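for the writeup, i need someone to sanity check this before i put it in the appendix. the sequnce is what the collaborator sent (i think, or maybe the updated version? ugh). structure was predicted straight from it, no edits. if anything looks off just tell me and ill rerun, i have time this weekend
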Amino acid sequence: MADTAALYGLVGAIGGALLGAGAVVAAPLLQNRGAARTRHWGLAEAEVNRLIKIRSSTRAVLYLQSQTVDALAAGREVAPAEFAAAMSSALSVLREAADDALADGLVFPQSPSTRPDPSMRRERRRRGRSMPPPYNVTSPIVMCLQRLGDDIRSALDSPVGEVSSASITSLRGQVTEAERLREELISLLLDRMERARNCRA
C-alpha cells in the first residue's frame, strides 16, 4: 500500500513537472501567436480604412464637379472662388488618400510623369507574411478629376449663362468618363476590402 502511494506520488510529481515545463514552453508560443494575430488584424484594418478613404474622397470630388457642371448647364451662377476653394480642399484629401494607398499596391498617378514610389516595395517587405501580397492596380482617376477641375475653373471664367454648349458637352463627357473610372475602381476596391477582411478573420 505504501509502495502504491509512493508510486502515485512519484507519477504525480513527474506529471506536475511535465505540465509545468509544458506551460513554460507553451506560454511564450501562445503569446507570440496572439501578438502576431493582433498585428495581422491591425494591418488588415488599416488597409480597409485606406481603401474606404479612396472611395469616399473620389466620391466627394466627383460630386462637387458634377453638381457644378449641372449648374453651368442650367445657367445658374457659380462663384468661381468658392468652387476653387472647395475643389482644392477635396483634391487635397484625395491626393493624400492616393499617396497612402501606395502601401497597398494601388497606384494613382497625379501627373503624367508619376512613377510608383519605392516605399511601396519597402512596405511590402516590412509586412512579410502577415498578409497576402497585394497586387498592383493603377488608375488614372486622380489625373482625370484634376483635369476636369481645371476645365470647370476655365468655364467659370465665362460670364454667367454664356458658357458655350460645346464646353458643357465636353464637361459632361468628362464627368461621364470620371464616373466610369470610379465604377471600375470601386469594383477593385471592394475586392481588395473583401480580401483584407478575410485576412482579419
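Helices lie at 2-73, 80-100, 118-127, 141-156, 165-200. The radius of gyration is 29 Å.
thx in advance!!
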